[in-house]
User: Fold this.
Amino acid sequence: SVTKRAVAEVAQHDKVPRPVGFVPPPPPCPGKIRHFDI
Amino acid sequence: VPAAPPAPLGCDDPESEAAAEVAVNYINGRSHHGYKFTVNRIKDVHVVPQGPKNNLMFMELDLLETKCHILSPTPLANCTVRSFAEHAVEGDCDVKMQKVDGTISVLASKCHSNADSSEDIRKVCPGCPLLAKLNDTEVLETVSAALNDFNSKTTGPYLRLLEIGRGQIQYHPAHIVAVEFAVGATNCSAEEAKVNVEACQLLPEDQSNFGFCTGTVVKHPSQDLKVDCQLYGHQVPTSDIPLLSRVFQPTSQDTS
Assistant:
């Protein structure tokens, strides 16, 4: 018989483990400041 | 399975930087007054696919004023950015572009510029000179005195004022007025101008010779005037807008 696990439990188990030191990529925008910010 | 949508374009991606360069060259090429602007930051970019190898790009750019007048032949890459302490001016532009087969072209742009607030400058640099209005009496007097002084001493052509680019006034520790203005060579020598200045007209487009002057008057304690003018030499207009008309036409903020 198929038992449906609670979402939290699934989410907990299926959450992709982040490697140690994982740094999320910078947001795509706004970009870098080339001179200075007014 | 339908192909996954392309990853959103990042503001610092090479494709965005290339598009920003096309945009800022377009904006400077159609500007009628003041100074060249350079990209300070790509604030936002959106790509809307139109078909195979055909995308619309919507970009929001933060620009900063450089010290190169719009008529200067100096390449933008060699133009110094006006520093914060020199009362920087920033531009904010929304640009619509199209990229077809890898070639980017500008369809429309809408820009506005504004000087940094005097309060911000004061906070960082209490004694720095602040931008004055271009029709400020002291600015007008200083431009007139500086141009007359230069024309009275030059061995070259008599120069006429094209436009005032900037005026700054400081009061401490001395009362100093600093101005920058664009000039054009006329068909007179300075000597001829002394006889009949009305006859001295700007050279026609095919011989035009524009230049740029900086002038400083120390009003107090001593009345000391310094002026320097550099002529660019004749330039063949690069964009489809004749150089002279670029300065004399009313400022247009939008292009399309």
